Every structure is written in structure tokens, then in C-alpha cells.
Amino acid sequence: MLSSNEMENMGKAIKEIGATKTCITGPIIQEIKKIVLDKGLDAAELYASQLTGTDENTELSRVFEICRKNKLSQQAVAQVLDNLNVIESGKW
């Protein structure tokens, strides 16, 4: 369970991510989430840079940077990833 401070930081990150037109496929998000939980954000970013298309990689890099800036834990990043398409749709 996330602390109230981390929930607040996650809220800031979600607001900063905001609505965009980029759509990252579900399988990519699930694989990235698994890597975040197992190996951390740096490993997930490396995976994204090597195995995703340019648009997906650019958007994931932006999301990772926002998560780092807001000091989110691996679990909080995983929750953001679980909801990334909803966040970016503007329906969050």
C-alpha cells in the first residue's frame, strides 16, 4: 500500500502526464510494468528504448522522467502504467 505522501506525489505525476494523443499498446505496458516491478525504472527504460517504436519510446521516456521527478516507488510507477491509457485519454 502506498503512503499518503506517495499518493500525493502520484497525483502530481498523473496531472503532469496529462492528456496526450499517444497510445501505447497494452502488451507493451504490461511488459514494462513487469520490468519496473522486477528490475526497476532504469531497466524498464532501457527495454523501452530497445524494443518499442519511436513514438512509444518517446512517450514512455516522458512518463518515466515525470515519475522520477515525483520520486515514485516501483509500485506507484506500476499503478501509473496500469492506468496510462486512461490518464492520457483525459478521462482520469
Structure overview:
The protein is an all-alpha fold. The protein is 76% helix and 0% strand. The protein contains 6 helices and no strands. The longest helix is centred in the C-terminal third of the chain and has 16 residues, at 54-69. The two termini are 20 Å apart. 24% of the residues are buried. The model has no long low-confidence stretch (mean pLDDT 89).
Compact description:
The chain has 92 residues and is mostly helical.
Q: Hey, roughly how much beta strand do the residues contain?
A: under 5%
What's the shape?
globular
For the largest beta-sheet, the strand count, sense and barrel status come to: none
Class by SSE composition: mainly alpha
Task: Write down the overall mean pLDDT.
Answer: 89
Helix content estimate: over 70%
Number of extended strands: 0
Intertermini distance: 20 Å
Radius of gyration: 12 Å
Put simply, the count of helices is: 6
Low-pLDDT runs: none
Secondary-structure element series: HHHHHH
Topology:
Elements: H1 4-17, H2 26-39, H3 41-51, H4 54-69, H5 74-82, H6 84-89
Helix pairs in contact: 1-4, 2-3, 2-5, 3-4
Features:
single chain, 92 residues, mainly alpha
